[in-house]
Amino acid sequence: MPKIHTYILGINAYDHDVSACLLRDGAIAYAIEKERITRQKHAGGFFQEVVDYCLKAEGIILDDVDLVVRNCYVLPVEELELRMIYQGDMLPREREQTAKSPLYLPKSNKVMTVSHHLAHAYCAFAVSPFEEGVVMVVDGVGSYASDIKELGQLTEAVNPLARESESYYRFKGSELEPLKKVWLRPCRGLLSDEFFNMDGLGALYSRVSSYIFADWNKCGEVMGLAPYGRSNSFRKLLTLENGELCVPAWDAEFNQPWMPDGLKKWEASPAMRHWEDLAWQVQHDAEEVLLARARWLRETTGAKNLCLAGGVALNCVANGRIVREAGFDNVWIQPAAGDNGIAIGCAYYGHLAVQKKARSFVMKQATLGIEYSDDAVRRVGNPLLVTRKTFNGNGENICRETAKLLSEGNVFGWFQGRSEFGPRALGNRSILGDPRRPEMKDILNKRVKFRQAFRPFAPIVPYERAKDIFIGEDESPFMLRAKMVRPEWKERIPAIVHVDGTARVQTVRREHNERMYDLLIEFERLTGVPVLVNTSFNIKGEPIVETPQDAMNCFIYTGIDYLVLHDTLVAKNALYKLLAPFIKVYYESRAQTRDEKPIEAVWARGWTVV
Ligand SMILES: [Fe+2]
Asked: Rounded CA gap, 423 and 421, in Å?
């Protein structure tokens, strides 16, 4: 039978945030992060689960895939595979699967590797709404100069052990041209040590995260802490001198890192003032450098359109300044700007640069997971512990009922449609609350999210109403830019206003998320406020829920009052309330054993060597 579609699989392989993206005829069919399946945040290692997820969803096998493009920032993937199978921290089960996979050390020209920043660049411009423009990629650490084999990537006369830190490109149609690269000087140590000492913007920001939170990947928390700090009470952490980035070495001034010992609470540390001031300084310096880079890019190219990717593009405060102050007409930010988005970039590198196809797809939404059936949704949950009511019709009634209960102060888990790809819940896997209540932030933190009190919650608002409440007319569909809340609205929606008067806004168009849009309109009809608190449907330290069962588990385990699964409203009953302490212990033990379940393989019957 002749093949109907062309398929390309992009994979972010082996290190943190493993993910896969399947293109069908140049459009994203499915994409998923491994953490959503294994329930381990930022899951790394082998990529069988994510590949299986995409293939199953499309109803194909690996033989049907025309091209596989992979990346890992650490090393070229095949080189990494030679080492990974013998060393590293893989589970024995996963190591066994890796060795058996036709994608392990593949002897096929249908499998290839692309370098890291190139993959980030493709995940931005290739799916942006612009025909031409420029791309800015800034992250923690990318490929070694010596591992970048693609032509024209400005690696001439660069130390082969230097690594990518910032990359700037111009694009027109499907063509991408590198303009400038900023390299990290080689430094001693294993990769993890190196990263702590690297002299780049993203690496420095991450160093601050390690210092304050004992975790290199808490940069969002650093950004949230920054407004609590005092301005300029530290010396500069980053400067630009004639376009060259300078990162002064740390010295004895930095002598209060967080040392978790399981006894002292982070919030009670005497170093808090020091950490707040440090967070302010690194955020300020990063904004100044990013803004200068963006202005340089506009001035040297005359471009009107800017695309952003790389982990630093998750900094919504810096993004907000770039949007307002860099002088571009339009800015588009890849919602999976971190390394999860590498899978998208790999796939589009295959589509545009390898297969030489034209661009034809714009990523208007980040909902790239599978759609669960109403049957699947109705099967989950324990009838002894919860009550259900299913609303018939077009969703109007479930929105009306939810809006009413939200306006009474209840906290909702909201599960609809396809899951979001990337770190933000954008209205399909969300926890929702009433923003008019000042206490809602504390309720969410204490009963549901179990996270530090300083972290702000984000608002979701209909696109048409956003400019009335927040300053700036630009759209923010992926919650990736901070805006000032208009003074007359600050008192009306206190739960989403950060200490500096900003909010990380998500705007929604009805054509992109009809159910969420209608809920917001219903809430406005009842309260006069077209805004809800929207935070990701998870508990601190866990990934966003993927399946209806994940959603039910989170609902049962936390203080969420109601759960909406498609058209069904789920409530906790009297027996649940009696058994709540025991249920908590039960679900904690389940979470610990979850990783032991076997993985069902959908590998090819035989990979064709061509
Ligand atoms: Fe990256």
From this structure: 7
